[in-house]
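Lecture 7 notes: from sequence to structure.
We start with the chain below.
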Amino acid sequence: MASLIGVSSSPFPTHTSHLVPSRSNSVSSLIQLKRYSVRRLLLLRVNCSSRQVEDAETESESKVVLPDTSVDTGISAYNWCAALGGIGFLETSYLTYLKLTNSEAFCPVGDGGSCGNILNSSYSAVFGVPLPLIGMVAYGVVAVLGIQLGQKSRPLGIGEANGRLVLLGTTTSMAAASAYFLYILSTKFTGEFCPYCLASVLLSFGLFVSSIKGLGSEEVQKDVGILLLTVLLVVSTLNNSYSVSQPSSTSSAMDEMEYFKTEITTESTPFAISLAKHLRSIGAKMYGAFWCSHCQEQKQMFGRDAAELLDYVECFPDGFKKGTSMVKACQEAKLEGFPTWVINGEVVSGEKQLSELAILSGFNMKEELTEAPTQALTEAK
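Predicted structure tokens for the same chain:
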């Protein structure tokens, strides 16, 4: 029995020993498979998330790059406005100084006469205001607006949109005025050259193009009506100014005339000589032009000797050419015609009789006529 038990019991442990390892292996394989699946899922999630991050970064980069490009374009255009406006400001400041001090401009090209004839002509002022001074203000405004718009700040405290519109309106006015003056140069000053004028034209057109580029074509199309109205206003203002500023005594048919001197043929009376001396002693001046017939008649009243004693100012000593302005002394006197007398601070226009001039100047005929022989005897001794 015992042997039977020993014999029969021997196989069971052996069989059990074979079954147990097989179960543990299957469990471990299941655990490994589960771990592998979990790792796969984690890798898939990581890969998906990394791809999503890369896609998001790519989209964000594309979204960021596009606005930066447009901003760079705007800044570039307004930087051009600032640079060109600064150059124009310097040029017009120099010309304004020359105008106010009555100095001659340095002309790097040509004999230099063309610059002076054009810059000192009647076209160099608008309603009495020197044209370089107007240009200096305009270029200064454009330069300031260009700098502030380029920095994305509020230009002159009026806001970016309004600042761009003001810039476009200013440059449009400058371009229209430059086109008008280019026409004047080609028709009134043929054969003459002014580098300052041409430089201002180029600067104005460059500023106009830069302001359009900065604002954008779509915005410009919305404001076409305002721009055309600005051009018409500038042209009409210049036309009215120059129609008023042209000398009234100048014939429209007279375009050019060389200076000439008319001989005085009449003899001077003692009264005329005494009156001429008196007028000179009190600082009275007679303003005239060599081509003015009334000026010559006024001199004939005084006679040859007395006319030489007058303090006479010739307003066109270098001849007359259409568009050429008078000398500075005549401009400061604000003449309305020829001849013009300035006696004791009073401006008297037109040809005057000697008796009228005597009354206006406070000339005492009796005292002067009685003192004249006495002075002659004293000089003879």
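Points to note: Residues 70-246 form a domain with the de novo design (two linked rop proteins) fold (CATH 1.20.1440.130). The CA atoms of residues 98 and 181 lie 19 Å apart.
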